Amino acid sequence: MKTVLITGTSKGIGLETALAFGRAGYKVFATMRNPDRAHHLKQKIADEALAITISAMDVDSEESVKRGIGVVLDEIGSLDILVNNAGIERHGSVEEIKMTDFKAIMETNYFGAIRCIKAVLPEMRKNKNGCIINIASVAGHVCSSPLGAYAASKFALEAVSEALAQEVKPFNIRVAIVEPGIINTQMAEDIAVSGKSIYPNSKRFAGLFAASLKTPTSPTLVADKILEISDSETWKLRHPIGPDAQPFLEWRASMTDEEWVDWNAANDTDWYEAVENTFGLNARKDEHPIKQQL
Protein backbone atom coordinates (compact mmCIF):
# COMPACT_ATOMS: atom_id res chain seq x y z
CA MET A 1 0.00 0.00 0.00
CA LYS A 2 1.42 3.39 -1.03
CA THR A 3 1.59 6.11 1.60
CA VAL A 4 0.89 9.85 1.38
CA LEU A 5 1.07 12.72 3.85
CA ILE A 6 -1.08 15.76 3.12
CA THR A 7 -1.00 19.06 4.97
CA GLY A 8 -3.96 21.37 5.54
CA THR A 9 -6.71 18.75 5.29
CA SER A 10 -9.44 20.23 7.48
CA LYS A 11 -11.36 21.65 4.51
CA GLY A 12 -11.29 22.53 0.83
CA ILE A 13 -8.65 21.10 -1.48
CA GLY A 14 -6.78 19.35 1.32
CA LEU A 15 -9.86 17.53 2.60
CA GLU A 16 -10.89 16.39 -0.88
CA THR A 17 -7.33 15.28 -1.63
CA ALA A 18 -7.22 13.12 1.50
CA LEU A 19 -10.49 11.49 0.46
CA ALA A 20 -9.33 10.96 -3.14
CA PHE A 21 -6.15 9.18 -2.03
CA GLY A 22 -8.03 7.17 0.61
CA ARG A 23 -10.59 5.98 -1.94
CA ALA A 24 -7.75 5.03 -4.30
CA GLY A 25 -6.33 2.63 -1.71
CA TYR A 26 -3.53 4.75 -0.26
CA LYS A 27 -2.60 4.86 3.41
CA VAL A 28 -3.26 8.54 4.09
CA PHE A 29 -1.86 10.73 6.85
CA ALA A 30 -4.10 13.80 6.92
CA THR A 31 -2.53 16.59 8.95
CA MET A 32 -3.93 19.90 10.13
CA ARG A 33 -3.45 22.42 12.91
CA ASN A 34 -6.60 21.49 14.78
CA PRO A 35 -8.07 17.99 14.24
CA ASP A 36 -11.07 18.94 16.39
CA ARG A 37 -12.36 20.85 13.36
CA ALA A 38 -12.24 17.84 11.03
CA HIS A 39 -15.85 16.77 11.60
CA HIS A 40 -16.66 16.26 7.92
CA LEU A 41 -13.47 14.33 7.17
CA LYS A 42 -13.94 12.12 10.22
CA GLN A 43 -17.49 11.30 9.15
CA LYS A 44 -16.36 10.40 5.63
CA ILE A 45 -13.60 8.17 6.99
CA ALA A 46 -16.10 6.32 9.17
CA ASP A 47 -18.79 6.04 6.49
CA GLU A 48 -16.41 4.73 3.82
CA ALA A 49 -13.95 2.83 6.05
CA LEU A 50 -10.99 4.68 4.57
CA ALA A 51 -7.36 4.16 5.63
CA ILE A 52 -6.93 7.79 6.68
CA THR A 53 -5.22 8.83 9.90
CA ILE A 54 -5.86 12.38 11.12
CA SER A 55 -3.14 14.04 13.17
CA ALA A 56 -2.18 17.49 14.41
CA MET A 57 0.67 19.26 12.66
CA ASP A 58 1.34 22.98 12.38
CA VAL A 59 3.56 23.69 9.36
CA ASP A 60 4.51 27.03 10.95
CA SER A 61 6.39 25.13 13.66
CA GLU A 62 9.59 23.25 12.91
CA GLU A 63 9.14 21.22 16.08
CA SER A 64 5.57 20.26 15.13
CA VAL A 65 6.61 19.23 11.61
CA LYS A 66 9.55 17.14 12.82
CA ARG A 67 7.40 15.46 15.43
CA GLY A 68 4.44 14.88 13.10
CA ILE A 69 6.43 13.46 10.19
CA GLY A 70 8.73 11.60 12.56
CA VAL A 71 5.75 9.71 14.01
CA VAL A 72 4.66 8.73 10.50
CA LEU A 73 8.12 7.52 9.49
CA ASP A 74 8.49 5.58 12.74
CA GLU A 75 5.18 3.84 12.02
CA ILE A 76 5.58 2.98 8.33
CA GLY A 77 9.31 3.35 7.64
CA SER A 78 8.99 5.38 4.45
CA LEU A 79 6.68 7.86 2.76
CA ASP A 80 5.87 7.73 -0.95
CA ILE A 81 4.17 11.10 -1.49
CA LEU A 82 4.14 14.46 0.27
CA VAL A 83 1.41 16.94 -0.67
CA ASN A 84 2.14 20.45 0.60
CA ASN A 85 -1.35 21.92 0.59
CA ALA A 86 -1.52 23.97 3.81
CA GLY A 87 -1.97 27.62 2.98
CA ILE A 88 -3.51 30.88 4.13
CA GLU A 89 -4.55 34.04 2.31
CA ARG A 90 -4.61 37.71 3.24
CA HIS A 91 -5.66 40.30 0.68
CA GLY A 92 -5.30 44.02 0.40
CA SER A 93 -3.01 46.65 -1.02
CA VAL A 94 0.69 46.62 -0.23
CA GLU A 95 0.22 49.80 1.76
CA GLU A 96 -2.71 48.55 3.80
CA ILE A 97 -1.76 44.94 4.65
CA LYS A 98 -0.04 44.67 8.02
CA MET A 99 3.51 43.41 8.19
CA THR A 100 2.34 40.63 10.48
CA ASP A 101 0.06 39.40 7.67
CA PHE A 102 2.88 39.50 5.11
CA LYS A 103 5.00 37.40 7.46
CA ALA A 104 2.19 34.98 8.32
CA ILE A 105 1.52 34.22 4.65
CA MET A 106 5.16 33.47 3.93
CA GLU A 107 5.50 31.44 7.13
CA THR A 108 2.72 29.05 6.14
CA ASN A 109 2.69 29.02 2.34
CA TYR A 110 6.45 29.06 1.75
CA PHE A 111 8.44 28.18 4.86
CA GLY A 112 5.79 25.65 5.91
CA ALA A 113 6.28 23.71 2.69
CA ILE A 114 10.07 23.86 3.04
CA ARG A 115 9.89 22.48 6.59
CA CYS A 116 7.91 19.48 5.37
CA ILE A 117 10.19 18.94 2.38
CA LYS A 118 13.28 18.93 4.59
CA ALA A 119 11.63 16.45 6.94
CA VAL A 120 10.83 13.86 4.25
CA LEU A 121 13.76 14.23 1.85
CA PRO A 122 16.44 12.24 3.71
CA GLU A 123 14.31 9.08 3.71
CA MET A 124 13.11 9.60 0.12
CA ARG A 125 16.67 10.18 -1.04
CA LYS A 126 17.88 7.08 0.81
CA ASN A 127 15.14 4.97 -0.83
CA LYS A 128 15.61 6.65 -4.23
CA ASN A 129 11.87 7.01 -4.44
CA GLY A 130 9.34 9.72 -3.71
CA CYS A 131 7.04 12.42 -5.01
CA ILE A 132 6.62 15.94 -3.63
CA ILE A 133 3.54 17.82 -4.84
CA ASN A 134 3.37 21.52 -3.94
CA ILE A 135 0.04 23.31 -4.25
CA ALA A 136 0.78 26.73 -5.65
CA SER A 137 -1.70 28.77 -7.70
CA VAL A 138 -2.18 30.64 -10.94
CA ALA A 139 -1.14 33.48 -8.62
CA GLY A 140 2.30 31.86 -8.62
CA HIS A 141 2.70 33.21 -12.15
CA VAL A 142 0.31 36.16 -12.35
CA CYS A 143 0.11 38.89 -9.73
CA SER A 144 -2.96 41.07 -9.39
CA SER A 145 -3.87 43.50 -6.64
CA PRO A 146 -5.12 42.89 -3.97
CA LEU A 147 -3.34 39.52 -3.92
CA GLY A 148 0.22 40.83 -3.88
CA ALA A 149 1.19 39.27 -0.56
CA TYR A 150 -0.42 35.92 -1.39
CA ALA A 151 1.10 35.86 -4.88
CA ALA A 152 4.54 36.60 -3.42
CA SER A 153 4.32 33.42 -1.32
CA LYS A 154 3.23 31.35 -4.32
CA PHE A 155 5.91 32.85 -6.60
CA ALA A 156 8.43 31.86 -3.92
CA LEU A 157 6.99 28.33 -3.63
CA GLU A 158 7.21 27.88 -7.40
CA ALA A 159 10.81 29.06 -7.44
CA VAL A 160 11.99 26.73 -4.70
CA SER A 161 10.03 23.85 -6.27
CA GLU A 162 11.82 24.38 -9.58
CA ALA A 163 15.20 24.34 -7.87
CA LEU A 164 14.22 21.30 -5.83
CA ALA A 165 13.16 19.39 -8.94
CA GLN A 166 16.66 19.81 -10.39
CA GLU A 167 18.33 18.66 -7.18
CA VAL A 168 16.32 15.51 -6.47
CA LYS A 169 15.69 14.04 -9.93
CA PRO A 170 18.98 12.08 -9.80
CA PHE A 171 17.54 10.39 -6.70
CA ASN A 172 14.36 9.39 -8.56
CA ILE A 173 12.26 11.90 -6.58
CA ARG A 174 9.61 13.69 -8.60
CA VAL A 175 8.48 17.28 -7.91
CA ALA A 176 5.21 18.69 -9.22
CA ILE A 177 3.61 22.11 -8.89
CA VAL A 178 -0.20 22.27 -9.00
CA GLU A 179 -1.62 25.65 -10.06
CA PRO A 180 -5.36 25.94 -9.38
CA GLY A 181 -7.41 28.79 -10.78
CA ILE A 182 -10.47 30.08 -8.94
CA ILE A 183 -11.78 27.09 -6.98
CA ASN A 184 -14.93 26.96 -4.86
CA THR A 185 -13.31 27.11 -1.42
CA GLN A 186 -13.72 29.27 1.66
CA MET A 187 -10.50 31.06 0.71
CA ALA A 188 -11.99 32.13 -2.63
CA GLU A 189 -15.21 33.24 -0.97
CA ASP A 190 -13.24 35.33 1.52
CA ILE A 191 -11.63 37.21 -1.37
CA ALA A 192 -15.10 37.75 -2.81
CA VAL A 193 -16.07 39.74 0.29
CA SER A 194 -13.04 42.00 0.39
CA GLY A 195 -13.34 44.87 2.85
CA LYS A 196 -12.97 48.60 2.36
CA SER A 197 -9.83 49.97 0.77
CA ILE A 198 -8.58 53.30 -0.52
CA TYR A 199 -7.53 51.37 -3.66
CA PRO A 200 -10.27 50.30 -6.11
CA ASN A 201 -8.53 47.05 -7.04
CA SER A 202 -9.69 45.26 -3.90
CA LYS A 203 -13.38 45.79 -4.61
CA ARG A 204 -12.99 45.03 -8.31
CA PHE A 205 -11.13 41.76 -7.84
CA ALA A 206 -13.59 40.70 -5.14
CA GLY A 207 -16.32 41.14 -7.74
CA LEU A 208 -14.38 39.04 -10.24
CA PHE A 209 -14.11 36.17 -7.76
CA ALA A 210 -17.79 36.46 -6.82
CA ALA A 211 -18.81 36.35 -10.48
CA SER A 212 -16.60 33.34 -11.14
CA LEU A 213 -18.03 31.49 -8.14
CA LYS A 214 -21.51 31.79 -9.65
CA THR A 215 -20.42 28.78 -11.74
CA PRO A 216 -18.14 27.13 -9.17
CA THR A 217 -15.30 24.72 -9.82
CA SER A 218 -15.21 22.02 -7.16
CA PRO A 219 -12.03 21.36 -5.16
CA THR A 220 -12.49 17.70 -6.11
CA LEU A 221 -11.14 18.64 -9.55
CA VAL A 222 -7.85 19.67 -7.95
CA ALA A 223 -7.81 16.59 -5.71
CA ASP A 224 -8.27 14.32 -8.73
CA LYS A 225 -5.37 16.04 -10.52
CA ILE A 226 -3.09 15.57 -7.50
CA LEU A 227 -3.96 11.87 -7.39
CA GLU A 228 -3.41 11.61 -11.14
CA ILE A 229 0.05 13.15 -10.82
CA SER A 230 0.93 10.65 -8.12
CA ASP A 231 -0.35 7.63 -10.04
CA SER A 232 0.95 8.62 -13.47
CA GLU A 233 4.61 8.91 -12.43
CA THR A 234 4.91 11.94 -14.71
CA TRP A 235 7.96 14.20 -14.54
CA LYS A 236 6.00 17.22 -15.76
CA LEU A 237 6.71 20.10 -13.40
CA ARG A 238 3.73 22.47 -13.65
CA HIS A 239 0.05 21.52 -13.75
CA PRO A 240 -2.53 24.33 -14.18
CA ILE A 241 -5.95 23.06 -13.10
CA GLY A 242 -9.46 24.45 -13.50
CA PRO A 243 -11.30 25.85 -16.53
CA ASP A 244 -9.85 29.33 -16.06
CA ALA A 245 -6.24 28.43 -15.18
CA GLN A 246 -4.52 27.80 -18.50
CA PRO A 247 -6.55 30.43 -20.43
CA PHE A 248 -5.70 33.05 -17.81
CA LEU A 249 -1.99 32.17 -17.89
CA GLU A 250 -1.97 32.36 -21.68
CA TRP A 251 -3.86 35.65 -21.66
CA ARG A 252 -1.34 37.19 -19.25
CA ALA A 253 1.56 35.83 -21.33
CA SER A 254 0.16 37.62 -24.38
CA MET A 255 0.72 41.01 -22.69
CA THR A 256 3.82 42.98 -21.93
CA ASP A 257 4.43 43.82 -18.28
CA GLU A 258 3.49 47.42 -19.01
CA GLU A 259 0.21 46.39 -20.63
CA TRP A 260 -0.59 44.24 -17.61
CA VAL A 261 0.05 47.12 -15.21
CA ASP A 262 -2.07 49.45 -17.33
CA TRP A 263 -4.92 46.91 -17.50
CA ASN A 264 -5.05 46.65 -13.72
CA ALA A 265 -4.59 50.39 -13.23
CA ALA A 266 -7.51 51.32 -15.52
CA ASN A 267 -10.47 53.26 -14.17
CA ASP A 268 -13.47 51.30 -12.92
CA THR A 269 -15.59 51.72 -16.03
CA ASP A 270 -12.88 50.55 -18.41
CA TRP A 271 -11.80 47.69 -16.13
CA TYR A 272 -15.28 46.24 -15.64
CA GLU A 273 -15.97 46.47 -19.38
CA ALA A 274 -12.66 44.76 -20.16
CA VAL A 275 -13.45 41.89 -17.78
CA GLU A 276 -16.89 41.44 -19.30
CA ASN A 277 -15.53 41.54 -22.86
CA THR A 278 -12.58 39.24 -22.10
CA PHE A 279 -14.10 36.70 -19.71
CA GLY A 280 -17.85 37.16 -20.10
CA LEU A 281 -18.11 37.94 -16.38
CA ASN A 282 -19.98 40.78 -14.73
CA ALA A 283 -17.56 41.66 -11.93
CA ARG A 284 -19.51 44.61 -10.59
CA LYS A 285 -19.60 43.59 -6.94
CA ASP A 286 -22.89 45.32 -6.10
CA GLU A 287 -24.60 42.87 -8.45
CA HIS A 288 -23.49 39.81 -6.44
CA PRO A 289 -25.49 40.21 -3.18
CA ILE A 290 -25.20 36.54 -2.14
CA LYS A 291 -21.44 36.68 -1.81
CA GLN A 292 -21.58 40.01 -0.01
CA GLN A 293 -23.65 38.45 2.77
CA LEU A 294 -21.06 35.74 3.55
From TrEMBL:
It comes from the Bacteria. Keywords: Oxidoreductase. The keyword Cell inner membrane does not apply. The keyword NAD does not apply. InterPro entries: NAD(P)-bd_dom_sf (IPR036291), Sc_DH/Rdtase_CS (IPR020904), SDR_fam (IPR002347), SDR_oxidoreductase (IPR051911). PROSITE patterns: ADH_SHORT (PS00061). Pfam families: adh_short. GO terms for molecular function: oxidoreductase activity. Belongs to the short-chain dehydrogenases/reductases (SDR) family. This is SDR family oxidoreductase. It comes from Cerina litoralis.
